[in-house]
Specification:
heterodimer; A: mainly alpha; MetI-like fold; 2 domains; B: alpha/beta; D-Maltodextrin-Binding Protein, domain 2; eleven-stranded mixed β-sheet; 41% helix
Chain lengths: 285, 322
């Protein structure tokens, strides 16, 4: 056997190893989603989506939980996206590179790894108590916005960094100002990467429970929030609540809730991916 | 058919409520329950949560405009908010601690403790376990006390005559109120327990654990046993007066001791000027007999609820409430 044959075997071996690893992930996912679908799909109907919580499993609905989740998703996006993207663009395009910006960079990366409970405690002290928002949607979405800011900032910086420098030079050459260059060239080119970061960050926000428990999200809310200052519950809290009930019928409800949460996440991500692709096609140099 | 029953039940509870509520609304106030509005904020123990949720759900049928919200921060977390005046009512699976009471006093909050139901703890083994039908409280202490760690590891060490079989222990995690209560009742000090048992905050996991191991012994809330009767065997507890198995009857009349406890709600003096809160608490005590068993807990005797109502009325009078 010569060297090239050995290399071919190694190549094949790695290929199969890769397939094997991919399959493990997919098979596990199929089993999880499959068992959840079997348990919960039959439970999802119009009544389930539009009913208030109840002590009786078959009467209990998820209206307040999914409406709370949508509110949280929307408000968090409104607060986190402009702040995160602007901060990322500033750090990359405008900010001077010195020891301070290095320190900032390291700290932002570290913040992305801080456990979410810590953000909950921060949110409780600042938004709930100092700003007196109470356990409201506003306090919850501010807290989650803080939580996902580092992710968005880091993603934005990476995406902006990846835009070739020649593009900027060309824009400057045409007499464009820094802002014009950033707005018309860099941001559209980096749009794909930025929106991927935003999608990941918001998906994380919609699945978070721990910080919301700390700031005082509730288990039983018999009304749909109508303003950002209303109290709320979210899907993961409702699911958690149901899985801890002694009555087995609630486990079915929890499975149905999980399907709904997955569905909402898929849907929102789908919309985001659609816009991302549409946006990216426009970029032509 | 089911619908008719539910409607009949609702009508009945409204009727009962209307009769019972009269005493509370003789202050000449013109607000009827249906027209009442406002928000009642409740937080606290997840053990008491199902009962308060059931009451809040039914309260909507008589006072639809009152927004009742319930959180599950745990008994301690609930009292923290309660002492800051952030909630009107606190769910509690134990009495208020001195520290928490001091915090309330500091903020000028008086409170009253009202018992709303009993919670029993079930000691369970696997159905294939044919040697245990009851355990004495001393035997339970021998098994669970901190000194037992690494030493009491075989069933034959628990009592002479038990077979030579490995003793597998399961119980709620240390953060749980159930754990605090069990250790206080059995070992004598809250939170004092051996550490080498399999803990889980999810009672369903404990049920599965005991159901899957012939040599297992575990404890958790009675409601979880009731839902899993076919997979578990209930162990009687003997406190020196003979073996008693927990049931509606033995918990209610106090013979299943020491593993049955009352659970509470605390009402803040800051909330007694809100007629909605007052109505809610009276509604709670009036309907607990019907609703508490619905969610797997054991109601107090009817006379006891009357006593709690009287206690509440005196509290209102003393704090300038209506």
């Amino acid at each position: 056997m010569n060297n090239s044959q050995i290399n071919q075997i190694k190549d094949k071996a790695f290929q199969y190893f890769g397939i094997f690893c991919t399959l493990i992930g997919i098979v596990l996912l199929v089993i999880f989603i499959g068992s959840i679908l079997i348990d919960g799909l039959g439970r999802i109907d119009w009544n389930f989506l539009t009913s208030l919580p109840s002590r009786k499993a078959e009467k209990a609905g998820i209206l307040t939980a999914w409406s709370g989740s949508l509110w949280i998703f929307g408000l968090t996006a409104i607060f986190a996206i402009p702040l995160g993207v602007s901060a990322g663009v500033y750090l990359e395009e405008y900010g001077k590179k010195n020891w301070f910006s290095n320190l900032l960079e390291i700290n932002i990366s570290n913040l992305a790894g801080v456990p979410s409970v810590i953000y909950g405690i921060l949110g409780l002290e600042i938004f709930v108590r100092t700003f007196k928002f109470g356990g409201s949607l506003l306090a919850g979405s501010f807290t989650l916005a803080l939580l996902i800011l580092p992710i968005i900032i880091v993603a934005t910086r990476e995406a902006v960094k990846a835009v070739p420098h020649s593009i900027r030079e060309a824009a400057y050459g045409m007499g464009a100002s820094k802002w014009q260059t950033t707005y018309t060239q860099v941001l559209p080119a980096a749009g794909g990467g930025i929106s991927t970061g935003i999608i990941l960050a918001l998906s994380r926000a919609i699945g978070e429970t721990a910080p919301l428990i700390i700031i005082g999200a509730l288990a039983y809310v018999p009304f749909v929030p109508t303003s950002p200052l209303d109290e709320f519950t979210v899907l993961p809290m409702q699911i958690f609540n149901w899985t801890s009930r002694p009555d087995h019928a609630f486990v079915v409800n929890a499975a149905a809730g999980i399907i709904l949460l997955l569905g909402i996440t898929f849907l929102l991500n789908g919309i985001a991916v659609y816009f991302r692709n549409k946006w990216q096609k426009k970029v032509k140099w | 058919m089911k619908k008719i029953q539910i409607i009949a039940l609702l009508a009945l509870s409204v009727l009962i409520y209307a009769c019972g509520g009269e005493g509370a609304s003789t202050d000449g106030g013109s607000t009827s329950e249906a027209a009442m509005s406002g928000t009642i904020k409740i937080d606290g123990s997840s053990t008491v949560y199902p009962i308060t949720e059931a009451i809040a759900e039914e309260f909507r049928t008589v006072a639809p405009k009152v927004k009742v919200t319930i959180g599950v921060s745990g008994t301690g977390g609930g009292f923290k908010k309660f002492s800051r005046g952030e909630t009107s009512i606190s769910d509690a699976s134990r009495s208020i601690k001195d520290k928490e009471a001091a915090a309330c006093k500091e903020n000028g909050i008086n409170y009253i403790e009202l018992s709303v139901a009993y919670d029993g703890l079930a000691v369970v083994v696997n159905p294939e376990n044919d040697w245990v039908t009851s355990l004495t409280t001393e035997e339970l202490k021998k098994i669970w006390q901190p000194d037992a760690q690494g030493k009491i590891i075989n069933w034959n060490q628990v009592r002479d005559g038990f077979p030579d079989a490995k003793l597998t222990l399961l119980g709620p995690g240390t953060a749980s109120g159930t754990f605090d209560y069990f250790t206080e009742a059995i070992v004598g000090k809250s939170g004092s327990s051996r550490g080498d048992y399999m803990p889980s905050e999810d009672d369903h996991v404990l049920v599965q654990g005991v159901a899957g191991d012939k040599n297992a012994l575990g404890f958790f809330g009675l409601a979880y046993f009731e839902e899993n009767k076919d997979k578990l065997k209930l162990v009687g507890v003997d406190n020196g007066k003979g073996s008693i198995t927990p049931s509606m009857q033995t918990v209610k009349d106090g013979t299943y001791s020491p593993l049955a406890r009352p659970i509470f709600i605390y009402v803040s003096s800051k909330a007694v000027n809100d007629p909605a809160v007052v109505e809610f608490v009276n509604f709670y005590l009036d309907n607990a007999t019907d609703l508490v068993p619905d969610v797997g807990y054991i109601p107090l005797p009817a006379t006891e609820y009357e006593a709690q109502k009287a206690k509440f009325k005196a509290f209102l009078a003393a704090n300038g409430g209506k």
